[in-house]
Amino acid sequence: MPIIKKVIDKLLKKNISISVAESCTGGLISSTITKYSGVSKIFSYGIISYSNKAKSKYLSVSKSNLSKFGAVSKEVAEDMINGLYKNEKTKICISTTGIAGPNGATKLKPVGLVYIGIKVNKSNYIFKKIYKGKRLDIQRKTRDFVFSKINQLI
Q1: Average pLDDT over every residue of 48-75
Q2: What pLDDT does 93 receive?
Q3: Cβ-count burial of 151 within 10 angstroms (0-12 exposed, 13-18 middle, 19+ buried)?
Q4: More exposed terminus of the chain, fewer Cβ within 10 Å: N or C?
C-alpha cells in the first residue's frame, strides 16, 4: 500500500480536503484514510450510502437516475460526488457504486462492475471498471484504483 501512503502524505502536505461516499466498498476507502495519523486535518467525512433511499436522502441522488439507470451506473456515481460536494465542498469527492458479489449481477451488470466518481477542483471524472475476484478483492481493487487516480490528479 505504498501508493496510499504517498497520496495521504500529498493530501496532508498540500492541505487538500477529501470526502467519500461509498456503496460497494462499504467504508473501506474511509477506513483506509483514517488509518493514518493527522488526517483529521483533511478528511471531512465518509458516508456509506448502500440503499437507494440513502443515496437520495443524503447525497441528493436523482430518483429518476436511480430508476432509469440503476444504482450501479455512471449517472449515479456522478450524482453521488455532486451530492457530496454540495454537502461539504471538499476539494476531492469520491464515490463508489458497484456489484461486489457474489449476488446481485444481471446480464448487463456483472459481478465486478464498479463505477467510481472522483471530483477534483470541481471537475468530475467517472470511471467504469470490471474487476475479477471475490467480494473483498473487488472492494480492494476499487480502493486501490481510487488512490492511484487521486495520485495522478493532484
Answers
A1: 97
A2: 98
A3: middle
A4: N
**Is the CB of residue 116 less than 8 Å from the CB of residue 148?**
no
CA 81 – CA 48 distance, rounded (Å): 13
> In angstroms, rounded to a whole number, what is the distance separating the alpha carbons of residues 43 and 16?
9
| 67: its cell numbers | 430508476
Q: Is 62 exposed, middle or buried (0-12, 13-18, 19+ CB in 10 A)?
A: middle
Four-residue CA torsion sign, 4, 121, 152, 115: positive
Concatenating the DSSP letter of every residue in the chain gives -HHHHHHHHHHHHHT--EEEEESTTTTHHHHHHTTSTTGGGTEEEEEE--SHHHHHHHH---HHHHHHH-SSSHHHHHHHHHHHHHHH--SEEEEEEE--SSS---SSS-TTEEEEEEEETTEEEEEEEE--S-HHHHHHHHHHHHHHHHHHH-
Model pTM greater than 0.90?
yes
In angstroms, rounded to a whole number, what is the distance separating the alpha carbons of residues 146 and 127?
Answer: 10
Cα–chain center distance at 4: 15
Contact 46, 30 (CB under 8 A): yes
Question: Residue 127 in contact with residue 88, Cβ under 8 Å?
Answer: no
